[in-house]
Structure formats: C-alpha cells, structure tokens
Amino acid sequence: MAGKRSYDDGCAAAHALDLVGERWALLIVRELVLGPKRFTDLRNGLPGISPNVLTQRLEELERASIVRRRRLPPPAASSVYELTPWGTELEPAIQALGRWAARSPTMPINLPLSVDALILSLRTMFDSGAAAGVAGCVELRLGEERFIATIGDGDLTLVRRDAAAGDRAVDTTLESDTDTFVGVIYAGTRLADAVRSDRLRITGDKALARRFVGLFTLPERAPSENPT
C-alpha cells in the first residue's frame, strides 16, 4: 500500500499483514463487522485511538478496498464507513484469531470490551453442543445498542436489531451494561446475582434467558511454557 512499508514477501499471509497488520487496522474492521458506523461511532468503540490515526487507517483500508465510505441520504446527510463485500470475508479470520488468542496463557482479564467486540465474541464462542434443544429469540439491550439472537437447531444468528429484525417479537429480553454482561457470560458471575443487584434485567422467558447465557464457552488455556 502506498506510503507504508511492505514485507516484500510473496506469501499471501505477508500481504494480509501489509493490508491489515498496522496497529488498529484489524480492530477497525472488527468494529464494522456488524454494520456501518460513523466516524464518531468508531471513536466510541475504540477510545484509545486518536482521530488522526483513525483517519489514516480508514484511508488505508479504503485504498485497499476493505472499507468504503458511503453518504447517507437526508435527513441524516452524514457519512458512514462500512466493509466492502470482500472486507466482510475477514470475519472468520478475526474469529479464528480470537479463538486462538483466547487460549493464550497470558491473555489479560478485566480489560474493557466494546459492545461490538462483545457481540462478535458471542458469535465466535457459541457452543452448538450446549444449544441442543434450545430454541427462541432473545433481545440483548446493552446501553443504547439492541441486538437480536435467534437460536435453533444448534445454530445462532446474532445481529443488530435495526439492521435485521425490525419489530420482530422476542421471547425474552436481557438488559444490562457491557461489563456486567461479560461477567455473566465469561467471568463466572451468577445470573441470579446480577439480577438481584439490578445490574441485569430479564423480561419474558426467564428459563430461556438462563439457557442463553450458558451457550458461550471459552476454550481451555494453553499451558504456559515460560520457564520463569
């Protein structure tokens, strides 16, 4: 890519790193997997990135045909960034990288997750075996964000509500902040305790809610080979 150093290596993996190997590039892609976002939305999802670096990375990803900018019609009259059809093909690569890194002996815990990172992790860590016999439609309300999870036949479809489901009826709704939800899904916080403390609210089928939060399994950590 113009203006960037290249590995000058004919391996396709090296070219992939030329395209998305710069700091923040792949996380920008992660934030766009679930749909288009405005510049300010990307900043909110990646609070550690500066406006200048975000602008630079978006320009690089546009030149690489991974991201494109689209002008919304009135009354919005603003621009959003979205993945190109080819760019959306990165989701399985991000998921595979996430599964691999989740096994790291040095994987940090208690660091914040953006809402989109959390939802993508649910799509990644869904345990189809645990979902046997589970069927229903769950709405997740995480702050201002709304998502629809549909479970059936051992499969999960999890998308933004405004992008996919409109006013579709749901069987149960879970409403919480991101940190609490992460704790319930991955960190061993008991659902009943989160509900009792009013950090998580359930509306509708409580049995389905209990089954739902148990459908996501982190892989076993790899053994540490560090001699110290």
Summary of the model, kept short:
With 228 residues, the protein is α+β, with helices and mostly antiparallel strands. Helix content is 39%, strand content 18%. It has helices at residues 12-20, 25-32, 39-45, 51-63, 85-88, 91-102, 115-125, 161-164, 178-186, 191-196, 206-212; strands at 67-71, 79-83, 136-142, 145-152, 155-160, 172-176, 200-204.
Poorly predicted regions are none
The Cα radius of gyration reads 19 Å
Overall, the morphology is globular
Query: Helicity level, as a percent range?
Result: 25-40%
The largest β sheet comes out as:
5 strands, mixed
The helix/strand series, from N terminus to C terminus, equals HHHHEEHHHEEEHEHHEH
Strand segment tally: 7
Category from helices, strands and their pairing: alpha+beta
User: Averaging pLDDT over every residue, what do you get?
Assistant: 93
Task: Provide the β-strand percentage band.
Answer: 15-25%
Major sheet: arrangement of strands: 5-4-3-6-7
User: What's the total helix number?
Assistant: 11
- End-to-end distance, in Å? 41 Å
